[in-house]
Amino acid sequence: MKEIRNFCIIAHIDHGKSTLADRLLEKTQTIAGRDMQEQLLDNMDLERERGITIKSHAIQMNYTCQGENYILNLIDTPGHVDFSYEVSRSIAACEGALLIVDASQGIEAQTISNLYLALENDLEIIPVLNKIDLPGANPDEVADEVVDLLGCRKEEIILASGKEGIGVEEILAAIVERVPAPAGDPEAPLQAMIFDSVFNPFRGIEVYFRVLNGKIGKGDKVKFVNTGKEYDADEIGVLKFTQEPRQEIGTGDVGYLISGIKVAKEVKVGDTITHVDRPCAESVQGFEEVKPMVFAGIYPVDTSEYEELRASMEKLQLNDASLVWEPETSVALGFGFRCGFLGMLHMEIVQERLEREFNMTVITTVPSVQFHAVYADGRVEDINAPSEMPDPGGISHIEEPFIRAQIITKADYIGSVISLCMDKRGEIKNQVYLTADRVELTFEMPLSEIVFDFFDKLKTISRGYASLDYELIGFRQSNMVKLDIMLNGEGVDALSAIVHRDKAYEWGKRLCEKLKELVPRQMFEIAIQAAIGTKIIARTTVKALRKNVLAKCYGGDITRKRKLLEKQKKGKKRMRQVGNVEIPQEAFMAVLQID
Amino acid sequence: MEEMLTAIGRELVQRQDYIPPTVETIYFGGGTPSLLSSQQTGRLLNQIRKQFNVAAGAEITLEANPEDINERKARALADLGINRVSLGVQSFHDPILQKLNRQHSGRQAGKAIAVLQNQGIANLTIDLIYGIPGQDTSAWEDNLQQALALNVPHLSCYALTIEEKTALGNWQRKGKFKAADEAAYEEQYRLMCQILAARGYAHYEVSNFARPGFTSRHNMAYWQQKPYLGVGPGAHSYQGKSRQFNISHNARYIKALKQGTPWYQQETLNKTQVFNEYLLTGLRTSQGIDFNYIRQAFNRDIYSIHRPFIERCLSEGKATLADGKFVLKDNALILADSVIVELMMDDQ
Q1: To 10 degrees, what angle do helices B291-298 and B271-282 make?
Q2: Which residues 110-149 of B are in CB contact (within 8 Å) with A?
Q3: How far is A556 from chain B (nearest CA, A)?
Q4: Which burial class, exposed, middle or buried, applies to A160 when counting CB atoms under 10 A from its CB (0-12, 13-18, 19+)?
Q5: Helix (H), strand (E) at residue A139
Q6: Which residues from B are below 8 Å from A572, CB to CB?
Q7: DSSP code of B285?
Q8: pTM for this predicted structure
Q9: CB–CB of B281 and A555 under 8 A?
């Protein structure tokens, strides 16, 4: 046990975590040069393209230091706020963390919140300034920032460059020297924590775990405490470049378990694995059921592909346990699914995976957060879709989820960041100068205000400097209303949204204008209206076409023209019909394009 | 030219059986048939008369540019039995003609009309173009008035269409030329319908107007799914169930006929395509489409399928429906493509 070191890496997107991790793997010869693929840890295509880690992974390295052989387990963490619970579990599986900070960018909001999480879990922090080879690097100033934040000594900070391979040896040595070996009782009943799972189409779900107490052997009868399900440990092993089966995984170590589990839902990150016949007394602290934060409808573009979409969603769910969905019907879009996502990135990922891995083209409707309808008798109902919004007369009030947002920005942009947050119904709670020109701002604001484009806006007004992290702090009473859109008097349910009353007029007006751009002119005039209940709050008109006919249609023109019009007809088939109006797919995403 | 005529002659021989033996209309068109000498035109006509039974009173049309028409030519055409001439006038205004790259002047056009009328070819049609940038509504009205004053009984009035691979298309791309806006098109279209209706011209197809007895029988045949035989490079034929397209490259066309290799491509129409063509040609004419015929021939109850749309057209005064015949009115003919696409069947 004393030769094991479990560590994770805390870093902001683009601060070079993956490149540095690759260097560690190279140095420890965990991966032969020919297998080296850039940014090896991020092995989903999507991840590599976006340069971020969506799912966390783990890998074991062997390292010899001063004649002693060590086992280093690197537990990678996802780099997006949508997945903060997974981050917390990865951190809980480690004794140490590399804090990687870009030497030119400085510390970012998300790094800080993950760092706090690591400190709460008593992790030993090894600060690393990365990208010191870049001309823009400012190691002195950033090092001061790190010293302020950690209260460490400046000498403890390692200067590195993943790209140039600088500092790699020092980092490995620091892991061995500074990160404590795992504690834990090898004789105690098995207590292991699940920190990740991966779907393997041939072998079922692979469960990644960290043994806290006791040990697990091949063939053991094990139980997942929170789901209560029991399995045989058909195969256990360690995660090298490939999986290496073992007879036993001991206390403090990290490994994988394969036991023919078919559904990702049975494997919950944070759950405890123990033995059936000698269970541990307590499960691992900190387990939470992952709850979706953002909801949206997903519909097949071609209505006949509903069953195919269902099959695809089921397959997707096999390796994405945080995706939840149920069937939903829309007048405008037909049959589809109401889906719950961890956040906007998760929603985008699901949509992209459906398109890439399953070849489905889908329409996603206006994303919305979960609201609560509170009745006079205190009863609370979830509202996951505008269509579930109850009649205002029947309820006491509506509550919406609020978050605490941490934003770190250059001091120059404080004014614009504050006004953006105020505009999003935010309330400033705190303002701390991290250095002379970097400020941490804390706001409380409604989650619904940040789900669309808040992050992009924040980046724009701060020229890319500001970074954001947030956590849910509970539900608060809000004056929310359901805004409906009507085309020629017929409601388009898929365009309804739940918005704050103070913003409804502006929202309605802009949505009408946007739709006017997106709905093609047709033979007849189209009235676009926004309404709250029966009250019309905005309207605009798509004027009728004035001319749509080709001049000549003799002999050979006929075929040509027929083909042309048949093509148009096909294009129309992809549109959705509400009453006598045809709506192109883009229109259902119009809400996302409103500034 | 001689080689071309020989090739066309060969094609005629080979396609003797493509259409029924009795021919109702003959049309010399596409390109510039007025470049043929009267003798050459006569040779072709003679061969047709020899091979087919040309009906008494058949409509025999020749397309001509105004600059190619003089008294001698007009007399010769009349002598050959040509009884209808279609003149590519386009405009009576010289600056516009120059803009459109035409060789003739407005005066020449007027003269050509008079010359043909003097030689007894009263069944005349001229092409005019509206929606030309730089030709405002009053200029367009003046063009129509000149045509009426010249006593032309049939007018083909085309909205300017700028196609990509043409000179105009190139100019437009380079910003040298700009199409008129929709509002101008619509205004000139409305004015044209009004003026011509007042003078007794029936608006019998999107772009065609005729006084009683002067409707083009040949063009109507296209729109009524009658079989037709087209010969020459780029010519197009229709047999009810299939269409045929000749090679349009002159030299290759000639070569193919000389060597006896295929000179055409064929396209077989399925029922959906036949139906869609019926819709698109029918809806463009004042005969409209016949719901009863559609039920019989295509087993399709178009009224039930598209009831809300059809009723909206009727209630907004865009169409009429009597005896199962659905006919677009002037104000909807300009939107005919929208209606056609709406009522079309998906080609599976």
Answers
A1: 170
A2: none
A3: 5
A4: buried
A5: helix A139-150
A6: 341
A7: B
A8: 0.72
A9: no
Q: Tokens representing A257? A: 């378990």
Three-class DSSP category at A493: helix
- At residue B248, φ and ψ (nearest 5 deg) are -95, -15
Distant-in-sequence, close-in-space partners of A353: CB < 8 Å, separation ≥ 6: A46, A316, A320
Label residue B294 exposed, middle or buried (CB < 10 Å: 0-12, 13-18, 19+): buried
Residue A523 C-beta-side C-alpha neighbours within 13 Å: 24
Interface check B222 vs A, CB under 8 A: yes
Nearest 10 degrees: Cα torsion A159, A164, A166, A169: 130
Give the span between the Cα atoms of A563 and A569, in whole angstroms: 10
- Residue A254 and residue A234: Cα distance in Å, rounded? 17
Alpha helices (runs of H) in A301-405, residue ranges in sequence order? 306-318, 344-358
For chain B, the domains span 20-223, 282-343
Do the beta carbons of residue A98 and residue A114 sit within 8 Å?
A: no
Using a CB–CB cutoff of 8 Å, tell me whether A202 touches chain B: no
d(CA A310, CA A334): 14
Q: Could you give the ipTM of this predicted complex?
A: 0.92
Of B234, B318, B338, the CB nearest to A548: B338
Q: How far is A510 from chain B (nearest CA, A)?
A: 27
| B316 inside 8 A of chain A by CB | yes
A535: Cβ contacts below 8 Å, ≥ 6 apart: none
Reading chain A (595 residues) residue by residue, the pLDDT tens digits are: 789 999 998 887 777 777 888 888 888 887 765 555 554 554 555 554 554 444 447 889 999 888 889 999 998 777 666 777 888 888 999 999 999 999 988 888 778 878 888 888 899 999 999 999 888 888 888 898 888 888 888 888 999 988 888 888 999 999 999 999 999 999 999 999 999 888 777 888 889 999 999 999 999 999 999 999 999 999 999 988 788 999 999 999 999 999 988 877 788 889 999 999 999 988 888 887 777 888 999 999 888 899 999 999 988 877 677 888 999 998 888 899 999 998 888 888 888 889 888 888 888 888 889 999 999 999 999 998 898 999 888 899 999 999 999 998 889 999 999 999 999 999 999 999 988 888 999 999 999 998 877 887 888 888 777 888 888 899 999 999 999 999 999 999 889 999 999 999 998 999 999 999 989 899 899 999 999 999 999 999 999 999 998 888 998 889 999 999 999 888 887 788 887 788 888 788 777 666 6
Mutation target to probe the A interface, by most A beta carbons within 10 A, among B338, B345, B348 is B338
Superfamily assignment of B20-223 in CATH?
Aldolase class I (3.20.20.70)
Give the number of other Cβ atoms within 10 Å of residue B213's Cβ.
8
The answer to whether A431 and A440 are in contact (CB under 8 A) is yes
List of chain B residues whose C-beta atoms are within 8 Å of the C-beta of residue A550: 161, 337
A523/B344 CB distance under 8 A: no
> Is the CB of residue A3 less than 8 Å from the CB of residue A147?
no
Q: Which amino acid is at A164?
A: E
The answer to whether A524 touches B316, Cβ cutoff 8 Å, is yes
Phi/psi of residue A254, each to 5°? Answer: -120, 140
Residue A416: enclosing H or E segment and its boundaries? helix A414-423
How many C-beta atoms surround the C-beta of residue A390 within 10 A?
Answer: 13
Where is B208: in which H helix or E strand? strand B208-210
Q: In one letter, which amino acid is B304?
A: S
User: Position B233: which residue type?
Assistant: P
| Sequence-distant (≥ 6) Cβ neighbours of residue A136 within 8 angstroms | A104
On chain B, the residues whose CB falls within 8 A of the CB of A551 are 158-161, 206-207
DSSP symbol at A135: T
Positive or negative, the Cα torsion across A160, A163, A164, A168?
Answer: positive
